[in-house]
Amino acid sequence: MANSFHIVVCASIVPDPLQTLEPITGPTGPGLKSEMNLPAVLDPWAACALYEAASLATKHPGSKVWLVSMGPKAKLQQVMMTVAQKVPFELVAVDGPIGGFTDAHATAAVLAETIAAIPGLDREHLLLFGGWESASRGAGVTMQIIGERLEITDQFQGVDQITINNDGSFTILERVEGGKHQVSTCAGTPALLGWATGELPEPRNNPQVGMANMRGVMPALQKAKSAKLDANGLSYVSVSLPKQRRETRLVKDMPEDEIAREIVQWIAE
Hints:
It is a single chain. By secondary structure, the chain is of the alpha/beta class. The chain has one domain (6-226): Rossmann fold (3-Layer(aba) Sandwich), CATH 3.40.50. Helix content is 29%, strand content 26%. The strands form three sheets. It has a nine-stranded mixed β-sheet, with helices on both faces. Strand 9 and strand 10 (170-176) form a beta hairpin. The longest helix is centred in the first third of the chain and has 16 residues, at 44-59. It is globular and about 70 Å long. The relative contact order is 0.18.
């Protein structure tokens, strides 16, 4: 069918950012204190990519959305109970480590291999979506490496909008410096889009969508393959929370120009 797409969304799960996250160094390297006990959510940037994918699939009949996610199966199940109620998708799960201290190349290799093995995936009509940034695997190169491994050379990062044209090409708005967008036109699929926040709000929970998704989510979790990520020589000297710095000085009747001058001087330092 014309202008139908196979959309694969790469989305990791991350600890809820509203929780206190304390980095520690354990026997296997750096991590988060009580990480497995922290509630998890779908990575915020990847969530935007998923919502955009679902919206695009709705507008183009014959399209299909896969959600590829790597993490401990127990955590994936917890997150999918909520995410499944948002939009329709087919889950492809990988039982692997979670966290921001994994090597991006090892992560990309596992995800690229998983995507390539999806049954029925049409590479000629593939749109590979993911987060431009990440709350865990935020090396800034993971999606790019996945695309390279899948031989996808048309890649766009910081995407806020995609518009499909009648001839099968699409126009993309990418964020650039100065709060502006770069307008690009791609002749067609396959292509990779690393999403910023997009332009869609978070969909409301729909129990019917959730029940339909969960019929496939549970079997996908049960047959999820285990993946071990190699460090590839990556090591961390230390991990710690950012240090807070606060310098307070009480001054009365200081002229506004003098206040502004001190602020500028402080920023410059």
